[in-house]
Amino acid sequence: MQAAVKQYQIGNLSLELESRPGVFPPSAHGQYFAQSILFRPHTTVLDIGTGAGILAVTAALHGAQVTATDVVPASLELTQANAIRNGVFIDVQHGPFFANLTGSFDQIVANLPQEIVVPEKEKLSADDAIAIDGGERGNHLLIALLEQAPRHMHKHSELWLPVHTLSDFQDTLRAALTNFNVRIHAIGDLPVKPFVTQNIDFYRELNEQGVIRIFNQQGTWYSQVWVVVLTKR
């Protein structure tokens, strides 16, 4: 069977990424995040929760030394395959967050599941759930990452995160501000995923409560992605 390969344009870079069953392909949100990050040559980059490897491959094409982690072995296999496809090398490590890695990195990027999904999980496939379900408030993985990250950052390290407003983004930002210097690098308005529009009453109630932020423009529902850069205080 021929591999499913798609072209992605990230800035002035053209990537070819293969997709495989069991690995969530780059979403519009992930592509926006990849477009926003300022990768630099001759730096060490860690991509946490690499998925299909769009961030890791992009960083490597910019000349960075890249390590990628994921809890799904199929994701690591696909990231390695996509690295070879694009003529770069990526060191992959199995495990959550920093796996068993030690030391610090110049740049840490993480596009983690951080959305509140409908309580009826059966409305999502298992693959979709593991890729987008961020827990009851949508941000439990981000909060855990914020606790661990300082141990792998030096005084000039940058932690780049997309903060989705389909989660309790205000709680995430408060947690970030507690221990980091926080800079907002970009804000993008992107259409919500189909599971949101299919269960819009659930999400409109969360919106009215101020937990999430979604809005309707000309019949299309949108959420926002805030790309933030964190440095140690």
Question: Can you tell me about this structure?
Answer:
The chain is of the alpha/beta class. It has a single domain, classed as 3-Layer(aba) Sandwich (Rossmann fold). Helices cover 30% and strands 33% of the residues. It is built from eight helices and ten strands. It has helices at 28-36, 54-61, 73-85, 126-132, 140-148, 169-179, 194-198, 200-208; strands spanning 4-10, 13-19, 44-48, 65-70, 90-94, 105-110, 153-164, 180-191, 214-217, 220-232. Strands 3, 4, 5, 6, 7, 8, 9 and 10 form an eight-stranded mixed sheet that branches.
CATH architectural type: 3-Layer(aba) Sandwich
Contiguous helical run count = 8
Please, what is the average pLDDT?
93
Shape: globular
The share of residues in extended strands comes to 25-35%
Decide which structural class fits the backbone.
alpha/beta
Number of strands: 10
Share of helix among residues? 25-40%
InterPro entries: Euk-Arch_PrmC-MTase (IPR052190), SAM-dependent_MTases_sf (IPR029063)
Keywords: Methyltransferase, S-adenosyl-L-methionine, Transferase
GO cellular component, one term: eRF1 methyltransferase complex
Organism: Aliidiomarina haloalkalitolerans
